[in-house]
Amino acid sequence: MQTRALETLVRILQVQSFSEAAQLQNMTLSALSMQMKALEAELDAELFDRSFRPPRLTPLGRQVAEQAKGVISAVDALHDLSTAGAGLSGAFKLGFIQSASARILPKFVTLAGEREPRATFRYRSNLSEVLTEQVVQGQLDAAIVTRVEGAAQGLHADLIASEPMGLAVPVGRSHMRVEHLSQDMPFIHFRPSTGIGKLIAASLGAGVSPKNTLVLDSIEACMECVKEGVGYTVLPLPDIRRYADARVHVVEDALEGLTRDLVMLTRDDSQAQRWRPRLLSLVRSAA
């Protein structure tokens, strides 16, 4: 019996869709259908109810898929014994939030090519909440996101860096205290629904509320507004430093104790345990 067929069966159980499972398994829909028919013939069991379109797992099919998880884990353990220390191999799908894609991804690509020649990587960039859900659904193997308490339940999170939050102010207002700034000019708020945005919102809740707020969905756009004297903003210090110029006054200790934790999220299963340490090492080196 081919474990590949069992992996496909488990994937169908996870996503409840033949077409999505085929995409995630890098197969055509017809190839997946033939593979499942062959598995049914080998087991002499009806795993799918084909009176539905698309077919649905039968109760027996669901039970076999659950049992297959243990078989796959046992096979993975055997591979671990025989390939320990061999490095990463295979095709990995990684997600990066905007700030991480700008600061970490270029170095990661270089290091991955040097250290892990047997692995290939595909990348996508999005918001923390979107990338987190894509890891949950198996659409990404790992994602570099801002840690938000309670947002990654059921996933494994490894700390990459803990970055202090800072204040970026137009240089012409560098003499003003935060409480005066908040009444004098708009606060440039990076999208509140994001990981960084939620941290910023929490910091505002503990201090003086701005009189006016301008919400933007780009860190670069926030910093450009500060440069033009439109308003002031709160962002992770590495991002402020990346975009700041002579028109920006940076206050590093204005939000003492407030940090953004950048973490790598992966599924908490036996397959991820095999490659997680080496991938994490690469990401930390790039950061």
TrEMBL record:
Coiled coil feature spans: none
Top-level taxon: Bacteria
SUPFAM superfamilies registered for this protein in UniProt: Periplasmic binding protein-like II, Winged helix' DNA-binding domain
Entries under InterPro entries matching the protein: HTH-type_LysR_regulators, LysR_HTH_N, LysR_subst-bd, WH-like_DNA-bd_sf, WH_DNA-bd_sf
Pfam families named among the record's database cross-references: HTH_1, LysR_substrate
Keywords from the named record: DNA-binding, Transcription, Transcription regulation
GO cellular component, as recorded: cytosol
Entry annotated with the keyword Transcription: yes
GO MF annotations in UniProt: DNA binding; DNA-binding transcription factor activity
Record domain HTH lysR-type: where: 1-58
Entry similarity comment: Belongs to the LysR transcriptional regulatory family.
PANTHER family the UniProt entry points to: HTH-TYPE TRANSCRIPTIONAL REGULATOR YBHD
Name this polypeptide is given: LysR family transcriptional regulator
